[in-house]
Specification:
It contains 5 helices and 2 strands; from the N terminus they run ααββααα. With 144 residues, it is mainly alpha-helical. It has 2 domains: 39 residues; 105 residues, Cytochrome c-like domain (Cytochrome Bc1 Complex, Chain D, domain 2, Orthogonal Bundle). The protein has a two-stranded antiparallel ribbon. Helix 4 packs across helix 5. The N and C termini lie far apart (58 Å).
Length: 144
């Protein structure tokens, strides 16, 4: 190689590489924007119980102990598939309602939130909605 690596060659490689990866980034962003609406079940967001359940999830800081689709704390079980794990929304509601007021002696446990029946329906509807999101098989098993 008789030609030396010059400043202008380095600059051209930098600009060419930057443009190439910028185009790849834009193409992947466009492709993602085309695929996500097909995977998402937006019609479920029309259900006011799902929206209210999401608000309950946030207000009560459930993610401070639980993970949801892999995000959050790992002190308590993953809730992305809790409806499938327990069998129904009614089972989720019964589980939340059955928490002892003082907790389980000797260990940290889920507190009793004293939700109303409507709030229980809302949080169960939200967890059911989350369980139906196409997550590419996450969590990998029913146990979470």
């Amino acid at each position: 190689m008789s030609e030396a690596f010059t400043t202008s060659t380095a600059r051209n490689i930098f600009y060419g590489g930057t443009m190439f990866f910028l185009l790849v980034f834009l193409a992947l962003t466009y492709q993602t924007e085309q695929v996500i609406p097909k995977r998402d079940k937006r019609e479920m967001l029309a259900d006011p119980n799902v929206v209210a359940g999401k608000k309950l999830w946030e207000v009560n800081n459930c993610i401070g102990c639980h993970s949801l689709l892999g995000e959050g704390a790992y002190f308590a079980p993953e809730l992305g598939n809790v409806v499938a794990r327990l069998g129904s929304q009614e089972a989720v509601m019964a589980f939340i309602q059955s928490r002892p007021k003082e907790g389980v002696p000797g260990r940290r446990s889920m507190p009793q939130f004293n939700f109303t029946d409507q709030q229980l329906k809302e949080i169960a509807a939200f967890l059911n909605y989350v369980g139906q999101i196409d997550t590419a098989k996450w969590p990998p098993n029913i146990q979470g």
